[in-house]
Write a structure and sequence with these properties.
Layout (H helix, E strand, L loop, with lengths): L1 H9 L13 E8 L6 E3 L30 E6 L4 E6 L4 E9 L2 E11 L1 H11 L2 E2 L5 H10 L4 E8 L2 E3 L22 E5 L5 E5 L6 E2 L28 H17 L24 H12 L1
Amino acid sequence: MEVMKILNNTADLDNMIYSNNSYRAWIGLYDDHVLGSWWWSLSDPSFYKPGETEFRQWYPGRPIAGYTDNVCAGIQHPYGLWYDRSCDIIHYAVCADVRGSSVTFVIITILMTWPEAQSYCRAHYTDLASVRNMAENQKVQAMLKVGLYWFGLFRDSWKWSDGSTSSFSFWKKGQPDNNNETCVAADFSQSGAWEGWSCDMERAFICYGPVVPVSKKVLKVKFENKKNLDLNDPAVMEAMLKQLKQKLRAQGLDDNIKLSWRKQADGNVFHKEDKKTNKRRRKREEL
């Protein structure tokens, strides 16, 4: 949601007006139609040792092949075997509270859909539980009472173009609608909520790249005021900044450089040089 807030603050709706369905921009999510892709809600790769993301304890005959709905995994009492169910069914849940290398499982006896359980666990703990090995499966199994409990495994054919495995979603209600719309746009007229669209539509789009480090330097400058201008006049200061920026560009500095004046304690930027004080200072330096 922090990224969605950034995108909403960045989006310029005035430049996102089309003949139909304005204010939308492509993001990097797409459907690759691979139904066998199972992911953990807690996607941090450092949380898993080699092979742990692939650990499974399915009930025989599960998962069901060809099941095209949004599918999530639950762990069943009393044997600790896993079932695939529609994510919209309500069940209890198992959350995980991760503190460094220590993991505590927490049973939540509130009936919720899988997305609701995911949001609940992320708000109150770390995430829905990842079951990484047989020891953890047996630990969770011993905590279960009656019925099936959601945990952090889900099947999703939607992928991020950069290969990341984030399980965050921000779909608009009723989306995705499985209507051969395999690319995703954010609707910034509705806080950037996601919609599936045909990939051959033309839209604005959002790129990202590495964060450019920002440095700040404070320089003291001296001007000869031959025309006796009021250098603290905002219009004069603005004109001076423009000239300085032009000179810096001519010397090959980046166009993204930002210049500003720094006010002194009395609220002014510029002060007239005291020549007598400077003469006394120079004499002291010579001595």
